[in-house]
Amino acid sequence: MSPIQQQLDLFSDLSAFEGTDVEYKGAKGGLPGDLWSTYSAFANTEGGTIYLGISQRGHEIDVHGVENPEKLIADFWNTVNNRSKINCNLLGNHDVEQLAIEGTAHKVIAIHVPRASRQQRPVFIGSDPRTGTYRRNYEGDYRCSDSEVRRMFADQSEEPADSRIMDGFSLDDLHFDSLRQYRNRFQSRASSHPWLAKDDQGLLEQLGGWRRDRIRNQEGLTLAGLLMFGKTSAIQAVEAVPGFQLDYRERLSDDPRVRWSDRLTVDGTWEANLFQFYQQAMAKFASDPGLKRPFAQDAEGVRPMGTPVHEALQEALVNALIHADYSGQGGIVIDRFGDRFEFSNPGTLLVSLEQILRGGVSECRNKSLQVMFQMLGVGDKAGSGIDKIRDSWKSLHWQSPRLEETQRPDRVVLALPLVSMLPEAVLAGLSERFGSRFRALDKDSVQVLVTTQMEGFVSNHRLQEILTLHRRDITSLLQSLVKEGLLVPDGFGRGTRYELGTGNALPDKLAIPPDSLAIPPDKAAIPPDKRSAPPDRALIAIAEPVRSTRRADPAVTKATILSLCQGRFLSLRQLSELLDRGPETLRDGFISPMLKEGVLELRYPDKPSRRDQAYRAQQGGQQ
Q1: Contact 399/195 with Cβ under 8 angstroms?
Q2: 3-state DSSP call for residue 219?
Q3: Which domains are present in the chain?
Q4: 209, 259, 459, 562 - which has most CB atoms within 10 Å?
Q5: Is 216 exposed, middle or buried (0-12, 13-18, 19+ CB in 10 A)?
Q6: Is the CB of residue 592 less than 8 Å from the CB of residue 572?
Q7: What is the pLDDT of residue 7?
Q8: What CA–CA distances, in Å, run from 244 to 114, 166, 231, 266, 482?
């Protein structure tokens, strides 16, 4: 089989809709007009592949090819190199391919669009980035707002965001107890460091908190100095960071009426600068009753030494503080749930998720803040912060950390589960569900199924965070588990995920062997019911009292929903299919009221509108 034909595994491999985003375009009349918005969106997000000569109608894929592919490719290159049409060509010759359709004379064109670097973003259509810049989310391409475009331009600059001299601010805007405490901690770590001999302004200058701009003949307090050591009122001034917010929230109460069991926020009771927040958050970690062997505290706060989990939490906290875009929305938020920590900061990643997972790449938005924390022994420049966190979690045999970007507003979220990778109860449940086939699986396959059971679903990207396998090996592993009926695929593109199956292997006519990589010669569309296993029969049996009638009593419907959601998260789509009811009817008539009653809980309580939201019955919820 030729290398070109091998590219066609996208259409025959049940689990190859991963790793890159995918867009199908018919191109029957030449280059489609919306090609360029997708090009811009891929470049400004995580990259992706555009396939010309394929149409998608609903969930059906029609591979019909393109006429005169050479002319279409020539037209593409002419346009992508036209600066009046696209401001930036990211592609090389190897990024545009002709893919043969086996058994026909037709070809598909694949255009691989990489993620643009921060220096290249925004990639936009036409001459005005305010109207021609797009990004990608689960819903498709969307036009960026003015604020999103401005932040992309800001990230282009080689001048760090926190080095800006703050006009009208002075040393009087600093909280000098914070600067004194910082000096003491710095001295306890490096008592002979020459910077410690300088006065406060001199120390600030070495740290990047005070800067001289020789070109503009200006000097003064920088944004980094104000954020790290400033008074709250000065930091939140209209001329500085009016949206500045810091929040540490514990959600450990069993009482649903108690929103926070503990909270540290900007409330006027303390000088809320980054250094004080760092110290108090570290003290919270040290005294956390759910973490074993907390490390000791000194007179100024918490020593940056101790158990792997505390060192990882410290690294996660500092990463959020030094990488945040303080002009963004939402501030720094740390949530302590019963089973995990979540660290969230405004902004986007300056390098791709794939580069972060590989390690060794360092791009910091606030380099002076980074230096300030380095002098305390945390936040190094080696790009290894996530590596340290993952290694610490691995040493404890906990589930791997999850890192994701969200949009509108732009935020980066790092979740650190406090849950075993292979809990005995989950292993026993899977063994009972799948029998001897589960017990015969290799360790990687077991980990995939355990993670799916515990998190509700998995994706190729999530497994890259957990396993040491290459993405293509993970794809093959997922394909094998789907073929055996142990997993069920759901969705396309970057949103594709896998849920636990019924254990019923796919029929031979649907089980596609790994080396069958070409599009079938009849170019038949692939209907969605041939891409997944049938629903769980046990769940259908639970749903039967509602499913079998068009006018079920509302009390029966509510009780059935609670039974279906006992011990598992189900999405609105899944509930709709099981109960044979419209999603809007279920959402408005049952799900929303049951959430308000507290008998259902959200998988993502802080993101209620997530496309992949799901629901589970609260323990003790009345049926």
Answers
A1: no
A2: strand
A3: 3-156 (3.30.950.30), 171-417 (3.30.565.60), 424-503 (1.10.10.10), 537-617 (1.10.10)
A4: 209
A5: exposed
A6: no
A7: 39
A8: 34, 15, 12, 9, 47
